[in-house]
Design brief:
The complex is a heterodimer of chains A (about 220) and B (about 260). Chain A has about 220 residues and is an all-alpha fold. Chain A is about 75% helix and about 0% strand. Chain A has one domain: MetI-like fold (Orthogonal Bundle), CATH 1.10.3720. Chain A has 11 helices and no strands. The chains are: A mainly alpha (about 220), B alpha/beta (about 260).
Chain lengths: ~220, ~260
């Protein structure tokens, strides 16, 4: 059991899902209320990481972060090192990778808020931003928690992107799924087993929280 | 309709006669082996399917029932493990070459490898050094041994990044994400990297010999075809192709020409 890799992965997932709340809410807000004709293109782009092979994402991130790209060179001139093989690089890759898992639940819950409440709020003199903060956000709590939890769980299990841009550095980019892969490749099945089981339990707990929050209370009680 | 049927039959026929053999090979063969296989197909008509990975990874897949007929390993330990586990056809182990480790830098690198050798890695401009994962890749272990041999491992260990296999280590440095890499000579000489950088050959006494060894796996249903393919490696044509990728012949298989130290 590699605790270093475990806590590294938890840290990565916590940072990514927290950042995704900040990034995801404005995107979800725009997706919910925009009437732009080409909005569906943005929706498709946001959903891309769900279907895109992680290797494709990993490849683009590697090329974009490398010292041959303008972005990579700019970062290098700023910090003195390239983004690939760093924890920050993994954060950037994971933000892209888990974006739809945050934005989609956010947007779904914003869209489910009764529009008459919004009109009432507006007629009482609230600006759209005030209405959003005081009406929409509180009513979307379950969606926000779902998006946070899903992006957290999704980042925990990330493999392809990390394999391609991480460089497997212990304590920096060796995440728990990479560690499991290494354990299996070196035929260290008992260690792989323990780590895999832990990941299974954590993922199950996170999803239980999500589904528990979203259930209609007692709709499927055993006494019915 | 009858045309379609004829076409289907034709396909069925090709499938029946093709009898491809499946070869799992260490990543250091990723450039040389396709050429070898093409030469072999031209000669015999035998089709060969290739899968590349780290030797450790492929050994583990073989253990778990991967449908390979032949396994090319970048060191002899993995085939020996499979022999001990009864997964290798008797008497098929063949050391076909010795692999060489090189220090490779991109063409625009300021490092002077011919002057500094491996000490170039201590240069502050080298932020990341890519090597293969020592846990699964023989070239990774060779790289770590070489760094220890020259007494600079502790100084550079925090800058090492691990490729899943030696091909990925090469890709990390080729793409400019690492500034230097300890990779296979066969990659440095491959068309993909040849013009893009410079290399320094790590002396053979700096790391345990990378005896490239191939075996026929006992699970294979095509023992004869697999053995014939391995025999082709002894052919002068195959040997000179391997030599062009920097693989030298191991001493005991030596049959004239340049002697390996």
């Amino acid at each position: 059991m590699n605790w270093e890799a475990f806590w590294l992965t938890v840290r990565l997932a916590a940072i990514v899902s927290t950042l995704l709340i900040a990034i995801g809410i404005p995107i979800a807000y725009w997706l919910t209320y925009s009437r732009w004709r080409w909005k569906f293109l943005v929706e498709a782009a946001v959903a891309l990481p769900i279907v895109l092979p992680p290797t494709v994402l990993g490849f683009y991130v590697l090329v974009a972060l490398g010292s041959r790209s303008p972005l990579g060179r700019w970062w290098e001139s700023l910090t003195g090192h390239t983004l690939a093989f760093t924890f920050e690089g993994l954060v950037i890759g994971s933000l892209l990778y888990s974006l739809p898992f945050a934005v989609q639940p956010f947007a779904a819950s914003f869209g489910a808020v009764d529009p008459s409440l919004l009109r009432a709020s507006a007629s009482l003199g609230h600006s759209p931003v005030q209405t959003f903060r005081r009406i929409v956000l509180p009513l979307s709590k379950a969606g926000l928690v779902t998006g946070f939890a899903l992006s957290f769980a999704h980042t925990l299990g990330e493999f392809g992107v990390v394999l391609m841009v991480g460089g497997n550095i212990p304590g920096v980019t060796r995440t728990i799924s990479i560690d499991i892969y290494d354990q299996v490749q070196t035929a260290n099945y008992s260690s792989a087993n323990r780590t895999a089981l832990l990941l299974l339990i954590v993922s199950f707990l996170v999803l239980s929280i999500v589904y528990g929050l979203n259930r209609r209370p007692w709709a499927v009680g055993p006494w019915r | 309709m009858s045309k379609l049927l004829a076409l289907l039959l034709l396909f069925a026929g090709t499938f029946a006669t093709a009898q491809e053999i499946a070869v799992a090979a260490a990543a250091d063969m990723s450039a040389a082996l396709p050429e070898l296989v093409a030469a072999y197909a031209k000669k015999t008509g035998q089709a060969v399917k290739l899968s590349f990975g780290s030797s450790g990874n492929l050994t583990n897949q073989t253990r778990n029932g991967a449908p390979f007929d032949v396994f090319f390993s970048a060191d002899e330990d993995y085939p020996q493990q499979l022999i001990a586990e009864g997964l290798v056809s008797k008497g098929t182990l063949y050391r076909y070459a010795v692999g060489r480790l090189v220090l490779w830098v991109p063409g625009n690198s300021p490092l002077d490898l011919s002057k500094q050798g491996i000490q170039a890695l201590l240069d502050p401009s080298v932020k990341k050094i890519s090597i293969a994962n020592p846990a699964t890749a023989p070239y990774g272990r060779a790289a770590v041994s070489a760094l220890r041999h020259f007494g600079i491992y502790d100084q550079v260990s925090s800058r090492l990044v691990l490729g899943e296999n030696v091909s990925q280590a090469a890709q990390f440095v080729e793409s400019g994400n690492a500034q230097a890499g300890l990779i296979a000579l066969s990659h440095a000489l491959a068309p993909a990297l040849k013009e893009k950088g410079r290399y320094w050959t790590v002396p053979l006494d700096a790391y345990p010999t990378l005896n490239q060894a191939a075996v026929v796996l006992s699970r294979s249903k095509q023992q004869d075809a697999a053995r014939k393919f391995l025999e082709f490696l002894r052919n002068p044509e195959a040997a000179s192709l391997l030599a062009s990728y920097g693989f030298s012949l191991p001493p005991e298989n030596h049959s004239g020409g340049e002697r390996v130290k």
